[in-house]
Amino acid sequence: MDYQSSKSPVLHLWKRFGGSVFGRWAVSKVVAFKAPYFRSIKPRFTEVAPGRVEVCLGKRWSVTNHIGTVHAIAMCNAAELAGGVCLDVSLDRRLRWIPVGMEVKYLKMAKTDLRAVCEYPGYESLEAGDVVMSVGVYNAHGEEVFHADITMRVTSRPNAK
């Protein structure tokens, strides 16, 4: 099977529509529709490619905590979304994944809009087993305010050819 033709539906949508503001908005809505819990943070994808995904999260009242900063769980949501989509668009379609653990570090107070970035440069060599997707969440000044290492279990799809 040709690796390119076996890519994720999300990557296909991004390649087709990600070149415009409306297209990026539409892809973000489609992903959040497929996994509805992510709608709570109103994510906006700004980059989707094998080995790299970037998701923006606006600081607004519904994602803040009692001290007015972005809530830790909203950042966990953004990190899981970035890590999951990064893995999804990087895997051969004969494989599937599910998160099985997450370790997080709160590094600074999140007082601005945020950007969750997941990079996995060696994606071509991904195979079945546990994979750790590292996600940095950055404030508007480029400072990392949150970091997550998400363990994903990669397995073969049933009836995969």
Characterization of the model:
Strands 1-2-4-5-6-3 form a six-stranded antiparallel beta sheet. The chain has helices at 9-17, 21-34, 72-90; strands at 44-49, 52-57, 95-106, 114-119, 129-138, 144-156. It has one domain (4-156): Hotdog Thioesterase (Thiol Ester Dehydrase, Chain A, Roll). It is an alpha+beta fold. 26% of the residues lie in helices and 33% in strands.
Which terms would index this structure?
161 residues; alpha+beta; Thiol Ester Dehydrase, Chain A; 3 helices; 26% helix; 33% strand; HotDog_dom_sf; DUF4442; DUF4442 domain-containing protein
Question: Strands, helices and their partners?
Answer:
Blueprint: H1 9-17, H2 21-34, E1 44-49, E2 52-57, H3 72-90, E3 95-106, E4 114-119, E5 129-138, E6 144-156
Antiparallel strand pairs: 1-2, 2-4, 3-6, 4-5, 5-6
Helix pairs in contact: 1-2
